[in-house]
Amino acid sequence: LFAVPIKNFFLYRTRSIGQGTFETMASIRVGFIAIGAGAVNFGGAEGPWDHASRLEKIPGLKIAAISDKIPGKAQSALDARRSKSNASVYSECNVYDDYELMLAKEKLDAVFIGVPPFAHGSFDYPIELKCVEAGVHCFIEKPLSVKAVNDVSAYMEAVLEAQARHNLVVSVGYMFRYHSAICRMRDLLRQHEATTGAKLMYLQLTYNCAYSQLDHPFWWRKELSGGPIVEQATHFCDLARYIGGEMDLETVQTQALSDSHPSGAGKLQHVPPVVHEEKIPSEERIPRLTVAQWRHCSGAVGQLTHGVSLHHKRYEARIEAWADGLRVTVTDCYTPKCQLAYRQGDTDDEVIETFESADPYQEEDDVFIDAIRTGDTSRVQSPYEDALKTYALSWAIRHASETSVALDRK
């Protein structure tokens, strides 16, 4: 049985020998497209999320190239990785300052696109389109872009056409869809409905980021990042859809707290000095708090609260779902301290489950590489076309929040 020809090589094949089989695995060559190397690509101060550390654990994989507009940053990241025990993964890696040159010179099977939101996802910055036109599988970090939803939709159509023509895998980095605690929450809700008929009533998602070490100036400027809902809380916009199903975007209502609210409640004391927020036009500064609610098509009510208020490194996150006779809560899904707690049926007792070993980042990367090797995309939880729906929700919330902030300024 032979499957999935890539660049004239078979990435995965099984041959029969007598009564048994043996499996061989050709090396997959992966490239990164970055700007300033990037925490999501090679790690940083904010948290444990980076793809390189996970890809290093996948057998038969080589990180063959890095494209970075700041090549010195890429070289530093590469040198740091080569100094560790997994240096062999990078033995053939070259650094470029132009991703199109990298695509032309390297025989890559896949790329990980981890650049700031303004630098991809549009006809102005067509990284995804160039990659799929080159016949390269793509893993795209969220958010999809900073452009208007209709513009991104038109761009996506061009990407999807090329994806289909070249038979490629395109996955978007909504890693919580792969988190075992989130999957367990989803299963509990479905099983409860199947056995009792009780549907989801309410879904609450809370995300409070630690901002004092968020020293990426682009993140603090909406025209470059999309704002904290589009860029950061997009993960929880996606979970709202993943857990609660689609929603009617016309029902989205939002209140936001801006930095310039007359009360002073939006003033932050520890914005990193490198940000120079005082130089950012007031209409481009990010809100400090956003509270949104909506109606799911199922009838359930959803609510998202995003805050920019914590110091140091640890983010805090909580997802809670209610149905008749069931309450399920997931906390700390960004950390090994993640817990799921639920109370169900005719009891006051709460069941607590822990997920210390969960690594949704590893799972999403494993699934992506496996889909390339086997041609089976059924385990890819966030294909490109589905991610547009999450993008549309995040923009609906942003638009509504800007109306709220404009009223504050009046």
What would you say about this model in short?
It contains 12 helices and 17 strands.
Would you give an account of this structure?
- The structure is a single chain.
- With 410 residues, this protein is α/β, with parallel strands linked by helices.
- The protein is 32% helix and 28% strand.
- The protein contains 12 helices and 17 strands.
- The chain has helices spanning 39-42, 51-55, 71-82, 99-105, 127-133, 149-166, 180-196, 222-225, 228-231, 234-244, 360-374, 384-409, and strands at 2-6, 9-17, 20-25, 28-34, 61-68, 94-96, 110-114, 137-140, 170-172, 200-210, 247-257, 289-296, 301-310, 316-323, 326-331, 339-344, 351-354.
- The strands form 3 sheets. It has an 8-stranded mixed sheet with strand order 11-12-13-10-14-15-16-17. Strands 6-5-4-7-8-9 form a 6-stranded parallel sheet, with helices on both faces.
- Strand 1 (2-6) and strand 2 form a beta hairpin.
- Helix 10 packs across helix 12 (384-409).
- The chain is globular, with a radius of gyration of 22 Å.
- The model is unreliable at 1-24 (pLDDT under 50).
Architecture blueprint of SSEs:
Elements: E1 2-6, E2 9-17, E3 20-25, E4 28-34, H1 39-42, H2 51-55, E5 61-68, H3 71-82, E6 94-96, H4 99-105, E7 110-114, H5 127-133, E8 137-140, H6 149-166, E9 170-172, H7 180-196, E10 200-210, H8 222-225, H9 228-231, H10 234-244, E11 247-257, E12 289-296, E13 301-310, E14 316-323, E15 326-331, E16 339-344, E17 351-354, H11 360-374, H12 384-409
Parallel strand pairs: 4-5, 4-7, 5-6, 7-8, 8-9, 10-13
Antiparallel strand pairs: 1-2, 2-3, 10-14, 11-12, 12-13, 14-15, 15-16, 16-17
